[in-house]
Specification:
CATH topology: Outer membrane efflux proteins (OEP)
Strand order of the largest sheet: 1-2-8-7-5-4
CATH superfamily: Outer membrane efflux proteins (OEP)
Largest sheet: 6 strands, antiparallel
Helix content: 55-70%
CATH class: Mainly Alpha
Structural class: alpha+beta
Number of strands: 8
CATH architecture: Up-down Bundle
Order of helices and strands: EEHHEHHEEHHHHEHHEEHH
Strand content: 5-15%
Oligomer: single chain
Length: about 500
Amino acid sequence: MGVKQVTGRSSLEIKKLPQLTVCVLGALASAMLVAGCTVGPDFRPPALPEKTTAMAPSVWASTPDDATNRVTGAAIDESWWSSFNDPVLSSLVQRLVKENLDLAAASERVQQAQAARGVAASAGRPHVGASIAESHDRISSAGTANLVSHPDGAPLEYSDWNAGLSASWELDLFGKVRRAVEASDAGTDAAIEARRGIALDALAELACDYMTLRGYQAREAITRSNLTTANHSLSLVQNQYENGVGNKLDVARAKVRRDAIAASLPEILTTEQEAINAIGLLLALPPRALQSELAPVKDLPLLPPEVPVGLPSELLRRRPDVREAEARLHQATAQTGVAIASFYPDVSLNGSVGTEALNFGSLFALPSRAFSIGPTIDLPIFEGGRLRSTLKLRKSQQKEAAIAWQKTVLQAWRDVDNAITAYGNTQERRKDLVLAVSNARDALTAAQQRYEQGSVSFLEIDTAQEALLANEDALEQTEITLRAELVALYKALGGGWQVVG
């Protein structure tokens, strides 16, 4: 038995008679199969601290009792975009699933994770290789050859031919490879959940861009309607002035009102085009590729009368970010096991069979055969603190992953609660703005009638029209906000990614 130093590790190479070797190999293999020892911590699904669990919501917050569109505790709709009853939106979603570049890149990351798993698993499988080589050598007559007996007439130059097969198999008695495979499996799960999260983000972004487009088309219609009203008012004032009833100040005010309304149109048109291009980018299309399809004006999609939100207890198994955080924790736990297993011996079975001859013609002759077989045990003795530092690093990463999971859960609860609250309160704002618009229209009609009768100045019309425009615009923006908040609620609930699997 000899001891050979190999890069800071002691390698105990045991080479005995073939019969003894077979017995040793059989014993090691039996020990591996029977014991199945895997060191390191086993992963268990994480749990929140007791104080957090005690304060966890049992049901979600509710919208106001008089809300037109309310949330319910029914099971969530995984195809939530269909609740808007907009065929164009549903068609865009189907195209998004097939064409989105972020989703395509995320799919490649899943493939990479699966390939990395195969690399990790290969360390625990037998490795077999074949080789054939020829070298031409010359021995120096003035060198070490003088120290040994050299037959007279023996050539100083010769060729050496070698051919053979070699095999090795790491037995993984302490589970180092199995833990590495477990970590890779968890990494694959994390990549899958990350892809689902990207899908959910893309769906929400598409829906919000679509709502913005339809909302700004409605704002454009409102602005053009008010511009028509402003032109009518200007004509009225000019006629009054030409008939000697009005004055230049009223004419100037009417022109200012018309020009101010007209000046708001370019910004609205810009936002419409940006929304179309944003949708095109999500579908991997160049700018204006969807112009003919989306530019025709359509109404804002209707809000569903009820929005099913499920129960808080179901959220953690549905949200991709929570599931990804759990997979990352699993991966970190398995990597801690790899670090612990590094303290234990590595046992591998090695064997080779081949031939060696001084000429190719004798290479495969029976006397040219050679073989070697036996186990190798590598035991770490001194690594300069590398193993301990690695274990400390992995344990810290495991704790960090557990903290990240806990924070992700709290953020998930917060997102849903904030979205429900905003959705309910914005409906209250919409209700008030509907009344304000109605009153502003009545005020403008009354001001126009009184101006035609000569009982008030044009300032009354100008003020009433400004109020109407402001409230109509605010109401339309509120309608856009309501839909964006509903999309945010659907996203917070974690439904919709199922469309990509």
